[in-house]
Design goal:
about 250 residues; alpha/beta; N-terminal domain of TfIIb
């Protein structure tokens, strides 16, 4: 079983919808515009943007995540819910029609791509999906800080109900362009504890590289923040949010 499929049932407890993120994203899309959520997970942010009147498409490579997203959209009721589908975010530029007012990829998903070239190609494909003046929002972690301080562990995520613990560690190799992201999800059940472990390589994407790749993909008016409250990026910031526009 794929790791993300194995944690899909607990995803919303570990990564609940961020209301501040929803407001941040909505502020960058015209009222009623088409919005694309890349690597949407279980679709929480997409559902909330649809509630605000946007026509939302959400894509994720994991089938279990998309099934949960579709169920969530159905439970929300009403018309105009998100269209969720299984799709690799690298293929979005080739598989989806253009005309989006906002394309976003949050949750440190972009660095799951295997190289700087793959990231640049994905960004170029996403720009082609945007209408003139449309916005891109990408949220990753601040790898300049992570490398400078040799961060080996991110804050552990804990849920009381259901009882969960999600440990996240980094492993480094000298001269490597990737970091090994090692996770352990421990679930306390009636019969005891069950732990699911995984290791996935993440591309080390510094701010300079992300901005350069975005410009090469044709984006302009770049802005960088440390949080969905619009805070400026500083040396101590852990999140990194890039906003840009397609002007052609």
């Amino acid at each position: 079983m794929d790791f993300y499929e194995s944690i899909s049932a607990y995803y919303d407890h570990l990564f609940p919808v961020d209301a501040q993120a929803v407001r941040f994203l909505a502020a960058r899309a015209r009222a009623g515009s088409c919005v694309l959520d890349l690597a949407c997970g279980t679709g929480g942010h997409a559902v909330e943007l649809a509630r605000l009147g946007h026509r939302v498409t959400g894509v994720d490579l994991d089938e279990a995540m998309i099934r949960l997203a579709q169920a969530k959209a159905g439970a929300a009721g009403g018309k105009g819910g998100p269209d969720f589908r299984v799709l690799d975010m690298r293929e979005a530029g080739k598989s989806l029609p253009a005309g989006y007012g906002l394309v976003y990829c949050i949750g440190n998903s972009l660095v799951h791509l295997e190289s700087e070239q793959a990231i640049g190609e994905a960004l170029a494909g996403w720009r082609g999906l945007l209408e003139r003046g449309g916005s891109l929002v990408v949220q990753i972690l601040n790898y300049d800080r992570i490398l400078a301080r040799h961060v080996v562990e991110l804050p552990t995520l804990v849920s009381e109900e259901p009882p969960l613990r999600f440990v996240r560690r980094y492993g480094y190799s000298v001269g490597d362009r990737v970091v090994q992201f090692r996770t352990e999800l421990t679930v306390r059940e009636a019969g005891g504890e069950r732990t699911v472990s995984n290791t996935v390589p993440l591309w080390i994407l510094r701010r300079e590289a992300l901005e350069r790749l975005a410009r090469q993909a044709g984006f302009q008016d770049l802005e960088v923040y440390s949080g969905f409250g619009g805070e400026p990026l500083g040396p101590d910031s852990l999140p990194l949010i890039l906003c840009a526009r397609s002007v052609s």
